[in-house]
Write a structure and sequence with these properties.
Blueprint (H helix, E strand, L loop, with lengths): L1 E7 L4 E2 L5 E2 L3 E7 L9 E5 L8 H4 L16 E5 L14 E2 L4 E2 L9 H14 L5 E7 L1 H12 L4 E7 L7 H15 L13 H15 L2 H7 L12 H14 L4 H12 L10 H5 L5 E7 L7 H10 L3 E6 L7 H4 L1 H17 L5 E4 L2
Helix pairs in contact: 2-3, 4-5, 4-8, 5-7
Length: 353
């Protein structure tokens, strides 16, 4: 069974900053049925511009006859705070003013995203979660949650993510926000505000999601006489328009700021100490040619998370490989689950060519 629901939180939701959001709503999808032991839960934390319908955007890994399927598991994916796919976000109505929040929406962090997942899990009565999985920003959320509630999460899969967002990643995000704010309509208090800037932001982001080799192979010009209208230029325009048609600049602005905030050591002894709080058996997957989240960041995670196994893969698609290389991910995650279920120790080093 595949259902979409909205959870309405009855109390003010306190953010890490101390500010509060009243009337928090969380849109989420569930697939399959919770078994009598309540131990077949798979929770998906989605990335920056995805939604709660994981069967739509992670096909091959999630779906009928896939590794994660509704016949065997009870799968939950919640739309994150700030996103425009149904959960409370900058375009939501602020009941204090009777108008949408826009830029009066409070800043929030990755830790707040994880706290919202906790609320929903409590609402669903899930005292234990068999496996939490996420890539990129989704991996940051999954990691924070595993630190906040080490006993609830039994297995953890972190893909192309890090323990602290890097200066490099923050610089990419700030460049995108500069593009958005250069569009004067961003300050116009309209749902379509900043759309031209968002188009540019997406173009910038794509350069970090893919690689030199990806563009060289997919956008190669066969006409050597061409001096304008290049395929790569058309591709950037097309992808920018695609995002504008399904997202909004305000959500993008706030979510990139939330990603920048990611630092598991904040208000804790250290990053290393925070990672050591994770009790879940963990698989960390890195992508060798990931420009945005270099593989050293995943190696650091595997080194400092107890009971962690590390796997690396080389993807033609760079960072976006975590969404595309579903055949390899199915194999490696499937092997991890089998070993985690049968052996107390899952520590190993494995490489995929």
């Amino acid at each position: 069974m595949n259902t979409v629901n909205i959870y309405k939180h009855k109390k003010p939701f306190s953010l890490e900053s101390g500010k509060k959001i009243g009337d928090l709503e969380i849109t989420y999808h569930t697939y399959g049925t919770l078994n009598s032991r309540k131990d077949n839960v798979v929770w998906v934390c989605h990335a920056l511009t995805a939604n709660s319908d994981v069967f739509d955007w992670w096909k091959g890994l999630f779906g009928d006859n896939c590794l994660f399927n509704p016949e065997e598991q009870f799968i939950v994916c919640a739309n994150i705070l700030g996103s425009n796919y149904g959960t409370t976000n900058p375009l939501s109505l602020n009941k204090a003013t009777g108008l949408p929040y826009y830029l009066s929406f409070p800043d929030f962090t990755v830790r707040d995203l994880a706290a919202a997942h906790q609320l929903l899990a409590d609402h669903l009565g899930l005292t234990q979660i068999g496996l939490v999985i996420g890539g990129s920003l989704g991996g940051q959320q999954a990691m924070e949650w595993a630190i906040l509630e080490p006993k609830r999460i039994k297995k953890l899969v972190l893909i192309a993510t890090n323990a602290q967002h890097s200066a490099w990643g923050i610089a990419f995000n700030e460049s995108q926000r500069l593009a958005i704010t250069s569009d004067r309509t961003f300050y116009a208090q309209a749902p379509s505000g900043g759309s031209k800037g968002l188009k540019v932001a997406r173009s910038i982001a794509l350069l970090s999601y893919r690689t030199y080799g990806t563009y060289a192979a997919t956008q190669l010009e066969v006409n050597s006489d061409k001096i304008t209208d290049f395929k790569a230029a058309s591709y950037q325009n097309y992808q920018g328009e695609k995002l504008v048609n399904r997202f909004n600049a305000y959500s993008y602005w706030y979510l990139t700021k939330a990603m920048d905030s990611h630092h598991v050591g904040r208000k804790r002894a250290s990053i290393e100490d925070a990672l050591k709080q994770i009790q879940a058996k963990t698989l960390v997957i890195g992508i060798l040619n990931d420009v945005l989240f270099p593989i050293e960041e995943q190696q650091f995670l595997a080194k400092n998370i107890p009971n962690a196994r590390f796997t690396e893969l080389n993807s033609f698609y760079g960072h976006d490989g975590f969404l595309i290389e579903t055949e390899i991910l199915t194999q490696e995650i499937g092997n991890f689950i089998k070993s985690a279920d049968s052996d107390n120790s899952v520590i190993s080093l494995h490489k995929i060519a």
